Amino acid sequence: MSKTSRKWILAALITIFLALLAVSVRHNIAYQLGNRPDFSLSKRVQRTKNGILVFSFHRVLNPTDIVKFDEKVSPNTQFHDFNENLPIFKQQMNYLHTHHVKVISIKQMIAMAHSNRPIRGKYVVITFDDIDRTSIDNAYPVLKKLHYPFTQSIITGNTGWYKQGTKLATWPAIQKLHREAGNQVTFGVHTNRMHYLVDGGIPVFNVPANFSRFKRDYATSQDVLKEKIGYKSPIFTYPYGSGNFQVQKFLDTRPGLKVVLTLNDGIVTNHSNLKQTPRIIVNTYSWPSIKAWINN
Questions:
Q1: Scanning 66, 151, 154, 254, which has the fewest C-beta atoms within 10 Å of its C-beta?
Q2: DSSP E strand boundaries for the chain
Q3: Domain NodB homology spans what residues (predicted)?
Q4: How far, in Å, CA of 139 to CA of 235, rounded?
């Protein structure tokens, strides 16, 4: 076999690998979005004048030459759908500040939603799924400067893992953030080790035969968080955005659990069920609809 032929075979294998990776990621995105056709807020939500919009971020990347190259040539849609470049993230956070949108903690959201008084004005809650290390290294300094509270949801059994371009923060890094940020950061659980898809692109915890395993996994995630951070969390964040009826019913009855973060379309008011809290994935596709809501 000639040297040129080997190069062509290698190029073909790389192309096939990237294509398969893209298919896998698109399955992920389909579950992240539920039944919504795109990332944007619905027109109904954009027209809502009062309420709390909950942001969902995953990674905040420095736009290095390597990152820019990957964004251009890779079929992996995570570079566009679940990554936010740091300069754009800064612009988004500053936009909230200059347009007088108050950023509040989940604790404040709970108090407002459970109040008998209607929520007046526009508020934002900032959340990060998975606790990728870039959310600490890149996003936290921006939030610290603006004094914005935020929530980090941890896959407690997968800390420090590297998978599909994501390098999850280690427990020492998370504990350092906890010490430095203090009350500015709240931690939620994002399962212990059930953040993946099985055959057919179904989240593993949504398979009925895995229900008992999910119950044990949830308990373990809370126990690990208490051991590492010092408390059990009132927040559970769904991997892939939602759970089946059986899983949701179980979470509804967990003592101390006050908020279940989904990726359903919507906005939080004092009539909302926080065990099905809606969120919006923030990226270049969704940001125009978020601006429309802010300026309505």
A1: 66
A2: 51-57, 59-61, 83-85, 102-103, 122-130, 150-154, 162-163, 166-167, 185-189, 197-198, 202-203, 235-237, 259-261, 280-281
A3: 122-296
A4: 21
Give the pLDDT band (50/70/90) at residue 129.
very high
> Hey, what CATH class is 41-295 in?
alpha beta
Identity at 232, one-letter amino acid code: K
- Alpha-carbon distance of 55 to 52, in angstroms, equals 10
- CB within 8 Å of 147: residues ≥ 6 apart: 184
For residue 188, with 0-12 CB atoms within 10 Å meaning exposed, 13-18 middle and 19 or more buried, which class applies? buried
Residue 149's region, left for phi above 0, alpha for psi from -120 to 50, else beta, is: beta
CB 84 within 8 A of CB 287: no
Domain boundaries, the chain: 1-35, 41-295
Q: Are 109 and 186 in contact (CB under 8 A)?
A: no
Amino acid (1-letter code) at residue 10: L
What's the burial of 178, exposed, middle or buried (CB within 10 Å: 0-12/13-18/19+)?
middle
User: How sure is the predictor about 36, in pLDDT bands with cuts at 50, 70 and 90?
Assistant: very low
pLDDT (mean) for 72-77: 52
d(CA 114, CA 287): 28
**For the chain, how long is the longest CA-to-CA vector?**
77
Question: In sequence order, what are the beta bridge partners of 55?
Answer: 126, 280
Predicted TM-score (pTM) of the model is 0.85
Tokens coding 4: 């040129």
233: buried, middle or exposed (CB in 10 Å: 19+, 13-18, 0-12)? buried
Long-range contacts of residues 20-23, Cβ cutoff 8 Å, at least 24 apart: 21/75, 21/76, 21/164, 22/75, 22/76, 22/77
